[in-house]
Amino acid sequence: MTYVLGLTGSIGMGKSTTAQMFADAGVPVWDADATVRNLYAKGGAAAVEVARLYPSVITDSHVDRAKLRDLIAEDPAVLDHIQEVVHPLVAQDRADFLNATTAPIALLDVPLLFETGTDAMCDGVVVVTVPADVQRARVLARGEMSEADFDMILSRQMPDAEKRKRADWVIETLTLDAARQSVANILEQIKAGASNA
Ligand SMILES: CC(C)(COP(=O)(O)OP(=O)(O)OC[C@H]1O[C@@H](n2cnc3c(N)ncnc32)[C@H](O)[C@@H]1O)[C@@H](O)C(=O)NCCC(=O)NCCS
Ligand SMILES: Nc1ncnc2c1ncn2[C@@H]1O[C@H](COP(=O)(O)OP(=O)(O)OP(=O)(O)O)[C@@H](O)[C@H]1O
């Protein structure tokens, strides 16, 4: 049996960086954001559906995220409609990944793990966190999102404090070394638990 470990955290908290640390330790990783990117690409199932609903956000047969962000900024209900299209396709891709894996531990990297109820299919959940001011500075430093875009995304996510309360493990991502050590400790604990079972 594969131990399914969920990884989540609010925007910019360090999910992708931490997921890479699990991957470096040999854990197969499924990435919800990467799945969405594939679904939005030319020929992707979501690109076809979104083109039908919102043709103005399509460029060269793929979903143009900058245009989609602008449309959502004008009308937040657009994101609800997009989620109705995208989330079932994401769930199918995740099921395919879990069915195919034979590893002892597999990681699901999912920004909306709790919001979508995906935590119910996890044996344990890791939440990554940093103080709110560090989070905001990190996201704005990327230069891809306006402050309004950031606040819109934040308002759609469960508050960080609530996520931490629900976590089995919390990783503070202030330094790479400390986070890497936390990843190693968590994997040790899961392996020890499995051998005691
Ligand atoms: C809103 C969009 C256009 C923003 O695209 P952009 O390239 O600027 O940012 P990116 O996709 O990297 O998202 C940044 C972060 O925003 C958060 N986020 C993304 N979508 C959502 C959402 N629907 N609700 C809350 N937070 C979200 C995540 O933490 C994500 O990691 C894009 O994320 C999107 O199309 N989202 C809808 C699909 C979805 O629900 N994805 C969530 C994973 S299943
Ligand atoms: N352990 C860490 N120590 C120091 N910096 C970190 C650590 N983890 C992540 N960071 C930095 O924080 C920023 C955000 O990290 P990352 O892209 O992994 O976050 P994310 O949660 O995947 O973001 P998003 O929700 O937008 O997809 C990056 O600049 C990254 O270098």
TrEMBL record:
SUPFAM superfamilies for the chain: P-loop containing nucleoside triphosphate hydrolases (SSF52540)
Pathway(s) served: Cofactor biosynthesis; coenzyme A biosynthesis; CoA from (R)-pantothenate: step 5/5
One GO location term (cellular component): cytoplasm
First-level EC class: transferase
CDD domains, sorted: DPCK
Principal location listed in the UniProt entry: cytoplasm
EC numbers on record: 2.7.1.24
Record's catalysed reaction(s): 3'-dephospho-CoA + ATP = ADP + CoA + H(+)
UniProt key word Acetylation: no
Keywords: ATP-binding, Coenzyme A biosynthesis, Cytoplasm, Kinase, Nucleotide-binding, Transferase
Places the protein is found: Cytoplasm
Classification via InterPro entries: Depp_CoAkinase (IPR001977), P-loop_NTPase (IPR027417)
GO biological process: coenzyme A biosynthetic process
Family: Belongs to the CoaE family.
Protein role: Catalyzes the phosphorylation of the 3'-hydroxyl group of dephosphocoenzyme A to form coenzyme A.
Name this protein carries in UniProt: Dephospho-CoA kinase
Gene (UniProt): coaE
